[in-house]
Write a structure and sequence with these properties.
Blueprint (H helix, E strand, L loop, with lengths): L4 E9 L5 E10 L4 E5 L6 H8 L7 E6 L2 E2 L4 H7 E4 L11 H11 L6 H10 L15 H13 L5 E5 L7 H16 L3 E6 L2 H7 L2 E6 L2 E7 H8 L2 E7 L16 E2 L5 E6 L8 H10 L4 E8 L2 H10 L2
Parallel strand pairs: 3-8, 3-9, 6-7, 7-8
Antiparallel strand pairs: 1-2, 1-4, 4-5, 9-10, 11-13, 11-14, 12-13
Helix pairs in contact: 3-5
């Protein structure tokens, strides 16, 4: 399957010498939801802005549906929708007029039925005649999404789409994103909310210091880099781990009542059964046993901590 967006050796160095993107290469597949994670200043917004034609790359190339973003910029702009981080909206325009104007900018014919459905999907239909200055921050965020979708793009970029949005509205937006994907729209989002990527993304990319550190299927990523831990709670505290248990590289809690065993859950020989027998043979009495899987947040933190 041909990538809908193809990025090759993309670099961006600003006039002050700051290198915001360092040789980034990435293929985005049609109909997928790709989440780009990274701390502030990692290069996420620069990457999206370059693809959307807002920032000029220093080197490298980007194509959208096979069209180069520089030589075929009119075509590529029409294929892309962008929801920026900032609430960049006028004050005195109505919601309806704002979307009509945005659609007209791309040479699209007026389509009241499409606008009505879009506003209903965004829970803005009852605000269609309201001036933008009267809307809450969350509603303005939804208007921005409407502006990005009104010309029916094939690729939608969401730069921190749920920043400053309450939990309930955030979940509503997740539902909207899934619905858009089902309609054939490819979605790329940047986010600081790890649970957002974990909830809706098909693939996850991690960017730090302008470099794409990792890109993989979300489930495969968590399986490969995630750790599974078994915590054994002891009935009686112990001052130190018995020598007979040294081979399992256990960690003893500060109160001496918990032993933590970290293992690879994909390995058919986890050693759990042998460990439990060894604990019993060492004369330790068990009170409880629990297991936990590393989250995407744990993986992200470990990646960006690396030098």
């Amino acid at each position: 399957m041909q990538a809908i967006v193809s990025i090759s050796s993309l670099c961006k160095t600003y006039a002050d010498g700051h290198q915001a993107l360092k040789d980034v290469s990435l293929d985005i597949q049609p109909g997928e939801i790709l989440a780009l994670l990274g701390p502030n200043g990692a290069g996420k917004t620069t990457l999206i802005s370059t693809i959307c034609g807002i920032v000029n790359a220093s080197s490298g190339s980007v194509t959208v549906a096979g069209h180069d973003i520089v030589s075929d910029y009119r075509i590529t702009r029409s294929l892309i929708g962008l929801v920026p981080q900032e609430l960049t909206l006028g004050s005195f325009d109505t919601v309806w007029d704002t979307l009509c104007f945005s659609r007209g900018l791309f040479g699209k014919k007026h389509d009241p039925a499409l606008l009505e459905q879009l506003l209903k999907d965004l829970s803005l239909w009852n605000k269609k005649d309201s001036m933008l200055m009267t809307l809450s921050g969350g509603m303005k965020r939804r208007v921005l999404i409407g502006k990005a979708l009104v010309h029916e793009p094939r690729v939608l970029f969401l730069d921190e789409p749920t920043a400053g949005v309450d939990v309930e509205l955030r979940k509503d937006m997740w539902t909207l994103v899934r619905r858009l994907r089902e309609s054939g729209v490819t979605i790329v989002l940047t986010t600081h909310y790890i649970e957002e990527a974990e909830e809706i993304a098909d693939r996850v990319g991690v960017i730090n210091n302008g470099e794409l550190l990792l890109l993989d299927d979300k489930k495969a990523l968590m399986q490969k880099l995630g750790k599974k831990q078994m915590v054994v709670e002891l009935r009686d505290a112990i001052p130190q781990i018995p020598d007979a248990l040294a081979e399992w590289m256990l960690e003893l809690s500060s109160d001496g009542q918990q032993l933590t065993y970290t293992y690879d859950s994909s390995n058919p020989h986890t050693g759990i059964a042998s460990l439990l027998r060894a604990i019993s043979d060492a004369g330790l009495l068990l009170k409880d046993v629990q297991t936990s899987q590393s989250s995407l947040e744990d993986i992200f933190i470990n990646l960006v901590k690396k030098p």
